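re: ur msg from earlier - yeah i can do the adenosine-5'-triphosphate complex, just paste it... oh wait u already did. ok heres what im feeding in:
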Amino acid sequence: MVERHHVEEIAEVLEGRASGRDSYVDASWRRCVELYGMDPTRSDPAHIVTETEFRIHRDQADWMIGAARSSLQGLFRQVTGQNYVLLLTDAKGVCVDFYGDDLLVDELRKAGLYLGSNWSEDLAGTCGVGACIVTGEPVTVHQDDHFGNAHTGLSCTSAPIYDSLGQLAAVLDISLLRSPAPKSSQNLAMSLVTAAARRVEMANLMAASRREWVLRFSTSPEFLDVDPEAAVSLDGAGRVIGATRAATRMLSGGKSLIGARIDTLLGLSVDDLPDLMRDRPTEDRVVALGDGGAVFGHAIAPQAPRRAPGQPIAPALRVRGGVLATLAGGDPAMARLLSQAERLAPTPVPLMLCGESGTGKTKLARAVHMASRRGGFVALDCAGADVEDLGAALSGQTGPGTLLLRRVEDLAPETARVLAGLLDAHPDMRPIATTGRVASELMAQGTLPPMLYHRLAGAVLALPPLRERQDLGWLIDRLLRRRDGGEMRLTPSARAELMARDWPGNLRALGNTLDVACALAETKVIDLPDLPAAPRSPAPEQDLEAVLDACNWNMARAARRLGVNRSTVLRRIRREGLRAPD
Ligand SMILES: Nc1ncnc2c1ncn2[C@@H]1O[C@H](COP(=O)(O)OP(=O)(O)OP(=O)(O)O)[C@@H](O)[C@H]1O
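and the outut:
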């Protein structure tokens, strides 16, 4: 009886009358007859692919099965005892993973709710998985919503899973062999299956983006770090290279985000991402949306590149990841320094960072602060700072924080005298000092009182000048990617010129040079004439011998006089073949 009524209802829909069911059901019925030539009176058994076909489908979906496993297990636990069965199908509708009650396996297998069954609409008729694949949306196909008589007892709720490029990759289905008559009985199943699909997309994006920045979003602060709603992955220039479906909806109303720059979608740029890392209070991590709304953001820094097999790295050189790992691209001295910085970061040890101007001391200090997971960050330029400025910087600081003292050699003597006492009064504030001088000279030459020096220089980290770094090429690429939307390229001769320069102004000068070059280049390609002239060395090279003579060939003194470091003097002596008088 029910069957006859079902066939009549399908005939009415074909004649153009609406059935009162969900519109995707009517549309699917029409496709079944008009497109696939199906007959609703037939009772075809479930379609099961062959062993060999199943192995191929399963192998191809292996990555998805792995990404989905923990979400599926969580979902199955939630519905335990309610006779639900979970199916994960690939984008063609073939079931590649299955969670169900062992006692029901025979019955489930017969109904096609099992591994290897093919639920594509052109074979199985109107069904949850099939309609989900066609519409790309979550659906519930309940009892006689199904087209074929064989399936009209089932209730199937299916949600699509998209890969990070926005392609349909799989379908997650939760089904019942027997269910209550009202379709609304499956509303809870619908919310469970869509939430699980969202988590699978998130897990998949995270697994694919270990070496990229990931920005996760939540509308409520309490779920931001534990169960965010949406996420994008970004390249170094801040362009979207992956997104979950929810992020595509949230940020562009469903239009693909791939290739879009984050600053065109949100009120932030790629340089702001460190401010959204977990060490910041959640309520400070608010991101403005293009439509005037706002969400909470959580940025996750790229992890360190994985080692090539057979290429061991000494434990001392290993930087596990996080923001510190983004500061260098394989320079051995930097790798050693960053590894030490990583281990010192969570401790309260005061740090002194030394190096020529523009070598990245301030940037390193910020990165150490982020890796330390301390709360507040206060920065103070020591030049011109008086006791009041110091007191003001420290007042109101509660809980563990970082006090950055920039160019500590410029501290006025009276400020230097009270600083040690102020630090003692704020034991939670970990000082990080930067200096352009060799650390030990600060005390030896009386620039800092010994007590203050010892209070600040718990560990000394010396940043190498740019001309000594072996990752100059990597740095050029990295800085270039951050400019003009990451589209600028260098001609080989322009690159060779940059690689050959001495860079007395270090990373700051490199950044400025690239800014000028990007502005002057008429196309997206920077050529030799677009590069500003290299700054002249502070001391002309022909003066070196005279300076050395004047300093009695004391390298350290000559280096100070020339405003360069000792290794530069040694390098020039070798290059010019100079010899100390006997
Ligand atoms: N590892 C890095 N990668 C990319 N850019 C960097 C890096 N380190 C520093 N920079 C950039 O170089 C410039 C100078 O860096 P920073 O201010 O940290 O140098 P500094 O050593 O503290 O300089 P100063 O001694 O003059 O205060 C900044 O624009 C910074 O963003």
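cool cool. The longest strand covers residues 168-176. ping me if u need the other ligands too
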